[in-house]
Specification:
The structure is a homodimer.
Chain A (H helix, E strand, L loop, with lengths): L3 H19 L6 H8 L3 H7 L4 H25 L4 H18 L7 H9 L4 H24 L4 H25 L3 H15 L4
Chain lengths: ~190, ~190
C-alpha cells in the first residue's frame, strides 16, 4: 500500500489508465482502488465529491502532460510545419506504447459524461482550448497571422483526436501521419 | 409496447441514442428496454449474445445511415471539394439537432470496448473503412489518382471524428467547418 502522500498521485494515474482503456462508466471505484493500492478512506479524503472529481483531476493533469509534450515538440522543431510532424509522432508513439489500447484521456471521459456533467464539460473544453492555444502560439512564432494561427490550433486538436480514434480501430498509428498531412496542407494553403 | 416485428428496430434505435449520449457501459439493459418499450424476452430473441451483439448491430446500422448521408452529399455536389463541405454540414446538422449531446455512434462504443472486444473492434474498423471508401470513390470520380483519393478518404473520417469530439466539448458545430477546410486543403495540395 503506498504512503498517504503518494495515494493521490497513484489514484490519478490508475484512473487515467483505466479511463483510457475502458471509459468512465466501465471503470468502477473498486477497480481504481485495487489498481492504485490506495485505501478507500484516502480516496474520499483526496476527492470528497467522488469519481467525478477524480475524473476532472485526471483530465486536467493529462491535459497538462499532453500540452507539455506538444510544447516540447514545437520547441525542438525549426518550423511550425516540422513541429506538426513532431507532435503527431509523439502522440502516435504514446499511443503505440499502450499497444494501441489507450485512447485520449479527455475524450474517453467526455463522450460518456458531457453535457450531463457540467463539471466535466468545462474541463474538456478547457483542456482542448489549452492544447489549441499551444499550437496557435507556435504558429504565431513562425509568422502566421492571428486568424490562421487560431484555425491551425483548432485544426491540430481535431486532427489528432480523429487520428487517435481511427488508429485505435485500426490498431495502427498510420492515421497520425494523415492527420499531420492535413494540418500541414492547411498551414501551406489556408482557405479564403 | 411495440409489436414484436418492431421490437428489434426499437431496441436498435433506443440503444443507438443512449450509447451516443452516455456510452456503452453507462447504458444498462434495463434502460434500453424501458426506452424501447420492448419486452425482455424479445431482447434475447433478437440478440441471443446480449448487449455486445446489440452494440455490433447498432454500429453497422448507424454506419450504413452515415454512409448514405455521405454518399448523398457527394451525389448532389458538383465537385469533390463541394462534397466535402456538404458532408461536413450534414454531420454538423445531425449533431446540432441532438442539442450537441450525441457523439458518433461508432466512437461512443469503440472507445470503451476495443481492443477488449474483438467483435466490436472488427465492427468499428469495418464501418470506418466503409465511410472512407465512400469518400475515396467520390474523389476518384472527380479525377484524383488512387493514392490521393485513398488518403482523402482516411483524412475525411479523421477530420469528422475529431470535429465531432471538439464540437461536443464546445457545444458548437464550428469545428466541422475547420474539419472541412483541412480536407479541402489536402485535396488542393496533397503533400509529396
Amino acid at each position: 500500500m503506498p504512503r498517504t502522500s503518494n495515494a493521490r498521485a497513484q489514484l490519478i494515474s490508475s484512473a487515467a489508465k483505466l479511463f483510457q482503456r475502458q471509459g468512465y462508466h466501465g471503470t468502477g471505484l473498486t477497480q481504481i482502488l485495487t489498481e492504485s493500492g490506495a485505501p478507500k478512506g484516502s480516496f474520499y479524503h483526496h476527492f470528497p465529491s467522488g469519481k467525478e472529481e477524480l475524473a476532472e483531476t485526471v483530465m486536467h493533469q493529462a491535459g497538462k502532460e499532453i500540452s507539455g509534450l506538444v510544447m516540447s515538440a514545437f520547441d525542438r522543431s525549426d518550423t511550425f510545419i516540422a513541429g506538426v510532424d513532431a507532435v503527431s509522432l509523439s502522440i502516435a508513439d504514446w499511443f503505440s506504447r499502450s499497444d494501441f489500447a489507450a485512447g485520449c484521456p479527455i475524450t474517453s471521459v467526455m463522450l460518456e459524461t458531457v453535457p450531463a456533467s457540467s463539471r466535466l464539460g468545462t474541463a474538456s473544453k478547457e483542456v482542448f482550448r489549452e492544447w489549441s492555444g499551444v499550437v496557435t502560439s507556435a504558429a504565431l512564432r513562425d509568422g502566421y497571422d492571428m486568424q490562421t494561427a487560431k484555425s491551425l490550433g483548432q485544426a491540430m486538436v481535431i486532427a489528432l483526436e480523429g487520428a487517435w480514434i481511427v488508429a485505435r480501430a485500426e490498431r495502427d498509428p498510420n492515421a497520425f501521419l494523415t492527420a499531420a498531412n492535413m494540418v500541414k496542407s492547411l498551414a501551406n494553403t489556408p482557405p479564403k
